[in-house]
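# step 3/5: fold
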Amino acid sequence: MKLYLIRHAESYGNIKGKIISTTDFELTEKGIAQSQRIGQKICSELKEQPISAYCSSLARARQTLIEILRCIGHENTEITETDFLKEMDLGLLEGMTWEERRQKYPEIDLDKKLSLLRAPCGESYQDVKNRCQRFAEKHLEKESDEKSIIIVSHGITLRILTNVLLKRPDEDINFLNWMENTALTELFWEKESNTYKLVRLNDYSHLGELQTAGYEKWGLFATQDYWIK
């Protein structure tokens, strides 16, 4: 079984310059193009394969998945939407600019201290970890080994889900970069060892001119390589 973990494409929330988690936004025109681009990237791998499709219940994830399925010829595939895959609820941080967050909550670090995060009036790292574990137990553990699974979710949730599926220590999440819009992380279920293996991590090579401006500056913060941490 292969898992294709994909962050949603650019939404109108991404271009506001503010912290957005559970507020629901639809995709921009660029986001639709990004969704089609990742669909084209994985089309040859999945066009003739049996697949299952999961996404967050937020519109930006659902729209991204619909475009991907259309591109790979699986537009009739049933989509399972679940709150297990929603973005972490960032509580009082929602709607703040990143500078406002630094001034009001200097102790909060969404990058290098995610494993310690408890958002004010929102969720903690452990809350989202528990959601991801329940998603794996309720859905992934029941999937056929012959299937390929597409999962579209969000920046923080996907970092945590990746760490959970690989059974890595909580602190390893702090070495996992932000995933670019429509970046692909691929995991392979190795039946013999009963574990997931990492095949691709945060692969956004398909984006080209559709890449998010400045991503290398704000997105790639890790001081150690997650592959070898």
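# step 4/5: annotate
The two ends are 25 Å apart (CA to CA).
# step 5/5: archive (pending)
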